[in-house]
Task: structure prediction
Amino acid sequence: MKADIDMFRGAYKIPSELQGEVTWQSPSNIALVKYWGKYNGQIPMNPSVSFTLSESKTKTTLKFRPKQKKSVQYDFFFEGKKAPEFGQKALSFLEKATPFLPFISELDFEIHTSNTFPHSSGIASSASGMSALSLCLMSIEQKCNPTISPDFFYQKSSFLSRIGSGSACRSVFGSVVEWGVLDGLSESNDLYALPIQDVHPVFRDYQDTILLVDEGSKAVSSTVGHSLMNRHPYRETRKIQAGKNAKSILEVLRQGDLESFVQLVEQEALTLHALMMMSHPYFILMKPNTLKIIQQLWAFREQSGVPLCFTLDAGANVHVMYPGNDKETVMSWIKSDIVEYCQNENYICDHVGKGPKKLT
Ligand code: PMV
Result:
């Protein structure tokens, strides 16, 4: 399907006394097939597929009232304190969203946000943060136009999240989510993500223990990272590979094929890092402990027969993924053999989740 940007331009009358507050909680997500590289307007270079997480979430309250002054008036609070450095990102997002949400220029805002995970953990908060804010904005649109359907509500929330941070568009839906035009998946498109319904029960309860190897801030911002693909020597090969892998992973998720899941997910993680090592300028984002964990994981898989695997974001932390049934075995291995490789022995227990929740 060719999704049309014009379907997201708001054409409705803005009530004169538009005032109130709304709160959404939205999760982060972890890509199985990675989005890496983009065109103008946050259009992905390749399709991607992710698990929505359950425990790593952002809660955002958006307070709004009719505009008092002509200039943009908004205040941004992170974990109860004024945070202009984060606010700058929110402001730039609101500006980009205004053509699709005309009420933005009629209102003053106060944004209160907090994460369930520590800010310094190296967990990207852009997916959970941008999706939570987009869902809040859509709740305001719903007040202006109560006739919008639930499908449209979530599609447009995903569309807006994408403008804020590409991968955020996948956080609007639960469990397994696809984003980007994919051959053979008729509703797939580049403008918003698609929840995948046909998923084997083993993956509905998949576990993701995030080993915090490096709690510092990101060495390479995703903006810089994506731009490395513009003139990458393997650009075209990567596009083809990602398309094939996205197709394969959806089949693997449907069938519950754990062996192929392990192979595909690890290949994608290592491809992401290999692409970065081969770009100009080049980066190594793994740390020595990232490699130690991967080697230990492979040895443990061989010896125990547990089908666990790893994936990586654009950083040094390791996501260890495994079926819910193996939780006890894997957690006791992590506690006895692995936690020493984590900074401050820190890790986060997460699992596949159902998606965002409206709180007020
Ligand atoms: O959404 P961004 O621009 O932060 O990019 C995310 C990129 C990866 O996390 C490396 C991969 C992905 O698909 O989430």
User: Anything to note?
Assistant: The first strand starts at residue 20 and ends at 33. Residues 31, 34-36, 48, 124, 126, 165-167, 222, 272, 313-314 surround PMV (CB under 6 Å). The chain has a mean pLDDT of 94.
